[in-house]
Amino acid sequence: MKIIVLVKEVPDTYGDRKLDLETGLADRAASEAVLDEIGERALEVALSFADAHDDAEVVVMSMAPETAAPTIRKGLAMGAAAAVHIADPGLAGADLGLTARVLAAAIRRTGFDLVIAGNLSTDGSGGVLPAMLAELLDVPNATALSSIEITADSVSGTRSADDATMRVSATLPAVVSITEAMPSARFPNFKGIMAAKKKPFETLTAADLGVEPHDLSVAMSIMTAIAEKPARAAGLKVTDEGDGGTRIAEYLVENRLV
Amino acid sequence: MMHDLSPEEVQLYDMVCEFADTVVAPQSYEADRSHTLSMDVVAQMGELGLFGLPFPEQYGGQGGDYMALGLAIEALARVDQSIAITLEAAVGLGAMPIFRHGTEEQKAERLPDLVAGRALAGFGLTESEAGSDAGATRTTAVLDGDEWVVNGSKQFITNSGTPITSFVTVTAVTGERTRPDGSVSKELSTIIVPNGTPGFTVAPGYDKSGWRASDTHPLTFDDVRVPAANLLGERGRGFANFLRALDEGRVAIAALATGAAQGCLDEAVAYAKTRNVFGVPIASHQYIAFTIAQMQARVHTSRLAWHDAARRVDAGLPFKKEAAIAKLVASDAAMLNARDATQIFGGMGFMNESLVARHYRDSKILEIGEGTNEVQLMVIARELGLE
């Protein structure tokens, strides 16, 4: 069983996160780069399964600038058997469609029974990549799972909605995404960090995957404007003159907050 | 981080920092307040492999070295010196003497549990009249048939009374030796005394002013009988054995002190940028900025000093002087940085909830333990041929 886990380097949410106002891309120098926590959780799902199944092989995969290699390597230190890093300057600023095409090509090249991703990255927050991948790979897709069971030929789990919980399942091969309800990831230990040095780490370009980054025949998203986040305005102050509760309730209803 | 570290060493340091920030720090105030070592944290440190860092995989270790251990201790000490000293003592004083001087049988029996953090061990050296002056040791061990009979008492013994402490290695006088010049000296040996052996009493923990979540007890031995096979290392080599442990321990304490100094620096920088006085952040007052610049300089020099000493340990080079210098410089840095950080915090720095207040109380022992700083000066002077 080969499980590919999609991981991503993102700006640390504990730091100041900024957009470069020239390019519209994340300013990677502005904050520390870390492995996205949701991707770590996805990796934990795969590693827990591999702990109990000797025939399971976990591969971490990421499309990211060359500088992200040490962050991806953390996935190896945590226990993944191999890493695939698609690093190509031509892919800088790639939209979700291009990213999905590149990753789908890389996934197909590596071979897979199951692809596990986080439901939503903490930087781009696109949230549609797993579905796009499933479409391109022509396999079933189970999104936003808050619990997961993997067997030799199927994957199933639960998805929480506002007022119900769905049980979903799919036959393998499949693409699934998990939510933050899944357990947080293990820490890599020193043995893992040292072992990671000797594990296969493949670096690919778009050309290796037969993808043309600037294929104008494919629909793409185009950024039309970018602006600094407006400074926080002063909030509404409610002075309680006996009707404070009512006025707060009215405010919440008016702004659709309840 | 420092340029002398390999990418793997940087990863190790970052990983332990993350563990320290997310798992250790949230419980530190309560653990300090209640004088309790969290066995849950110890267990998680075990799972992380921290207790096995410098030991070979053969015994369940991580296959790292002394540098790796120092990095982990420094990373933990930024937020919690009690947890850092628990690791330092468990590895340097608990497991290392067994690894270095134990028979294959003793290693096979005791190391796997220590290395995995499933068990802790203490090292009983200090007595009311004997510390760095170990020749003044009064505890005795007499061979009676195939058993050692141990009598005496020890004090300030770290990790000696936790729920998972399995034994304490005790230094004891096992006889007398006549030197070639006719003078007589005590023969010191080290003996493994399992917790729970009749006559071995672990008294309640001390009410310390710092390192309050670290487990420290006075021990008494009243006709304690253990098998002759519990002798650790050669009979009469006890002195040489623990001198090596103490020298290495100084490097580890220097790493711990560097972490403490770094923790104070981090807190001071963050606080000075956000705390406003007279309409501006206090960081924009030159006196505060310069104070913090001094703190950074102390952290840097301490780190250089302990890295150098640790690299010498790992390279098999002499390191006595470098260890003493590192311990001296870094413990002073920790104490001074703790003082500066609490001053920058003002009244908030006097509250025990603040990390800097804890560092203020915790750092004093760094100038005392593992040989006082006066002893470090003595060691350095001797290495220079000044007796």
How would you describe this protein?
The complex is a heterodimer of chains A (258) and B (387). Chain A has 258 residues and is of the alpha/beta class. Chain A has helices spanning 37-52, 69-78, 96-110, 129-137, 190-196, 244-254, and strands spanning 2-6, 9-11, 33-35, 57-63, 82-86, 114-118, 141-145, 147-150, 154-160, 165-171, 174-178, 201-204. Chain B is built from 10 helices and 10 strands. The radius of gyration of chain B is 21 Å and the shape is globular. In chain B, the strands form 3 sheets. Chain B has a 4-stranded mixed beta sheet. With 387 residues, chain B is α+β, with helices and mostly antiparallel strands. The longest helix of chain B has 37 residues, at 238-274. In chain B, helix 6 packs antiparallel against helix 7 (286-315) and helix 6 (238-274) packs parallel to helix 8. The chains are: A alpha/beta (258), B alpha+beta (387).
Please give the order of strands in the largest beta sheet of chain B: 1-4-5-8
CATH-defined fold name of the largest domain in chain B: Butyryl-CoA Dehydrogenase, subunit A, domain 3
Give the structural class of chain B. alpha+beta
Helix content of chain B: 40-55%
Proportion of beta-strand residues of chain B: 15-25%
**What proportion of the residues of chain A is helical, as a percent range?**
25-40%
> What's the mean pLDDT score of chain B?
95
Strand order of the largest sheet of chain A: 7-11-6-1-4-5-12
Uncertain segments of chain A of ≥5 residues (pLDDT<50)? none
Q: What fraction of residues of chain A sit in β-strands? A: 15-25%
Number of strands of chain B: 10
Quickly name the level 1 CATH class of chain A: Alpha Beta
List the helices and strands and how they pair.
The complex is a heterodimer of chains A (258) and B (387).
Chain A: E1 2-6, E2 9-11, E3 33-35, H1 37-52, E4 57-63, H2 69-78, E5 82-86, H3 96-110, E6 114-118, H4 129-137, E7 141-145, E8 147-150, E9 154-160, E10 165-171, E11 174-178, H5 190-196, E12 201-204, H6 244-254
Parallel strand pairs in A: 1-4, 1-6, 4-5, 5-12, 6-11, 7-11
Antiparallel strand pairs in A: 2-3, 8-9, 9-10
Chain B: H1 7-33, H2 39-47, H3 66-77, H4 81-101, H5 104-115, E1 120-124, E2 140-144, E3 147-158, E4 165-178, E5 184-194, E6 200-202, E7 216-227, E8 231-232, H6 238-274, E9 276-277, E10 280-281, H7 286-315, H8 320-345, H9 355-363, H10 373-383
Parallel strand pairs in B: 1-4
Antiparallel strand pairs in B: 2-3, 3-7, 4-5, 5-8, 6-7, 9-10
Helix pairs in contact in B: 1-3, 3-4, 3-6, 4-5, 4-6, 6-7, 6-8, 6-9, 7-8, 8-9, 8-10
